[in-house]
Task: structure prediction
Amino acid sequence: MKKLFYFVLGIIVIMTITPAKAQKVLVTDDASFSAPSTLLQVHKTGTGGDVLQATTGNTGTTGTDGFKVTIPSDNTVDLNNQENTAMKFFTNGTSRMTIDAAGNVQMTGLLSYNFIHGACYIENASYTPAVSFNVYTKITPGMTVSEADGLTISSDQVTIATAGDYKVDLVITMSGSDGNDYRVKMYKNGSATGIPGSNRISTSGSSNYVVLPYFWYVSLAASDVLSFYITNTSNSDDPTISDMKVYLEKKPE
Result:
């Protein structure tokens, strides 16, 4: 068995060659270490730091360019795309997960929607919409924007800023009389869309709240308008809404 030593700018590259021409490659800055344990091993002296960097003519070649693998002093592993671009993960030749430069995660399958492309809410309210039996009433208090990436707000409606396929999540916390069944619908451009979400008040009193979570999958164009309506399918008793949150998650292109 022979060992070939190459010295390049202070870095030692060792190739261990057996008679059968099998070989292992070691890249290290440690002159005392010469026995790689795998076909390719990169070893750095000290307590931690960068161990691998990959660059191209497009990324540049400085220490802050390209992709780095780092093992810090706490022995964790950092995978760092230093460019203002996405990281993509593939299986079977197909992209399965993407982390964009802003940190949004896109995955195939059920989790293929971005968190979050728009959000708004009504909070700490005591809003009592006047409902009629089986007649939908618009929820009218002005909402507050918490994430304006994909929407704008005008009082009681949401206007879509970017066309695409969306998952719209709605969570309402409300109270009412015992035994009342309340339903909420989402309207797109003035027309009901999707199946309404529903929940029942099981105990009367203003301190007894139920949470109505629901979601819709819907294709939306830029400037489409969303609004939300509520009804009582038991009688005409009004609910009291304390909180309402709306989240928009956009499917990646």
